[in-house]
Amino acid sequence: MLSALSESAARWLAGGKLARMTRTSMPVGTTFRFSLNRAAHVRLDFTQKRNGRKVSRGCVPQTRRNSSKPRCRRTATIGTLSLAAHTGANQVRFQGRISGAKTLKPGRYTLIVSATDSAGHRSLPHKLTFTIVKR
Asked: Which domain does 120 fall in, by range?
């Protein structure tokens, strides 16, 4: 169902709506491209590696209580976008803003894209990594 996932830039600057002059040649934002063989709702999950502590066979966020436990790395979902996509080639222009109030901070992220059609069939998740750089 979902295929040919790609991005225009793996390292880019976070941006807003208005254009302005910069002294860098690094692009502002990126474009995610993918193809669908039928119309579907596409879910984009933005995840990031975070530090944690091992507690009973799991990796959980650090608290005062578990601070003496062994360290580990966990994957945290930072935000999710859900979009309606059409059959064929699709593009999502992205500058780091997930909602009106939430923007991704500079850092390294993994994007997990999956599609669900009207019959409830889900595609296998596809992954991309990208880095948002400070201005």
From this structure: 2-17+24-49+82-133
